[in-house]
């Protein structure tokens, strides 16, 4: 670690101790000694100055001392999330080098800190879960390098700013009091309804609410009559209201009677009905990777299955079906509104929102007759028992005469594809920082090795859209083992990019999938992380031995554009990138027998990370120090994109 001037070091030390005095009454921070770069929460120093301060889950309270905080003018990453800090967010305009600010899940009040919009290097703003109010300032559009904006679970009012920064990939404005039409800027139209949910006054294409039908933010009522109405008009309106109430009560009684009759009839005929709502949501079925269609509460699809014997089938849970997180029944699932998230090789995926508000992901398999019932049950039982921190757990399944459904946990933070590419379907994207690449690579290798430790089990369809981001933004593999449910007699419907993830020897659908083929797909994924490019061409055949040169040229282009993916000039970072690139090259060997097994791949990745641990930070597994400034400790609740 290089050391700056003693005066600067003393300045930061004084500032930190001042912050501790105002925020740490319980003495959670045990700061002592003269080397502040070794203090708890100081994740990184630059020339002896604090550049990364992460004070999370420490029971901090009180208010932030503006004078002390602004003395830390070399800070790049500042995180106070998951504490109990109150008061207004102070003016941070003195932190001119700040790139990422995480103040989520505290007790901050007051308005959006407009000083943030003046910081030239700012990329990440996370203010979720506070008591902030007022309007989101229009000046937020001036944050040119904005990458993620999370303002959910506050009390913001007014409209959505016309955000149009091309680098904006993560957005969550849900659960506020926003109103009006969502601007149809080229950037905002890429975000799904999840980014705006819980704002009853909003309308627009993003949430499938026409503005002509949107509720008015302020509705006239008998207690709040419009200006200019006469006393006579108020009396007339009151009479109408009373008459309407009486009439409405009578109509309600009639309606309840009809509902009871219909329910009895439905119960009698339920065995004759199949899942027609979901088929309608798909527009007649079909595969591929088409865009999502939303169906929310107004006119949402419903699951209504038919049992094997003509009666209602059962929802079969895997271990702990009565636990709180799975306290739902088949009936709850039948009533859930279904929103299409994506369509793939083996079926379509839905976000199912139950009446209780509980959300699950449901995969509807394309061919409900292949494989045969017993073979299906045996295989789904194997994958349903897999439990690992880097796998999306399969919680339950339903099998009926014409339907097969798989129920997974819902991951609101989105996919690795959306992290790299945003909502774009083109091959373009931005390469991730080397620390992010290594962290994601280790997560995926760990999960894939766990799958491979089950004899004969493979993923079969590993790609960035099948990697979801967990609650701590760990990478979790989904759709593992499902290629066994694809009928080999059906034509291949994968997109070209999906096909190029697949090992050359397994591109014929009649060929068996192997663990060596998974290793190849893993290697292609590493190249996607390093370059920000989807496999829009056969990398091995197109680039061959020139792949390392191609990868480095792509990253150099991004560095020259000012996005700093490689921390240009850092010799240690170049070493880590080269090591990761060498691992990818070994994985994509054309000869399956020359590819390393996943146990060896994981060992190489961990050795590479360990060698560079002192370079990135001294942080814990889930702290921002393990990530680059743009993706580290990313906020939650981005829409799932499969």
Summarize the structure.
By secondary structure, this protein is α/β, with parallel strands linked by helices. The chain has 15 helices and 21 strands. The strands form four sheets. The protein has a seven-stranded mixed beta sheet with strand order 1-2-3-5-7-9-11, covered by helices on one side.
Descriptive overview:
The two termini are 42 Å apart. α13 runs antiparallel to α14 (598-611). The chain has 15 helices and 21 strands. The protein is of the alpha/beta class. It is globular and about 75 Å long. The strands form 4 sheets. It has a 7-stranded mixed sheet, covered by helices on one side. It has 4 domains: 6-207, Ribonuclease Inhibitor (Leucine-rich repeat, LRR (right-handed beta-alpha superhelix)); 245-269; 276-409, Phosphorylase Kinase, domain 1, CATH 3.30.200.20; 416-626, Transferase(Phosphotransferase), domain 1 (Orthogonal Bundle). It has helices at 6-23, 66-70, 231-269, 276-281, 330-335, 373-384, 416-421, 434-452, 496-501, 515-531, 539-543, 547-560, 571-587, 598-611, 613-616; strands at residues 42-46, 49-54, 77-79, 86-88, 100-102, 107-111, 124-126, 131-135, 148-150, 155-158, 170-172, 177-181, 201-203, 315-317, 337-343, 347-353, 359-365, 394-399, 404-409, 467-469, 475-477. A hairpin with a 3-residue loop joins β15 (337-343) and β16 (347-353). Helices cover 29% and strands 14% of the residues.
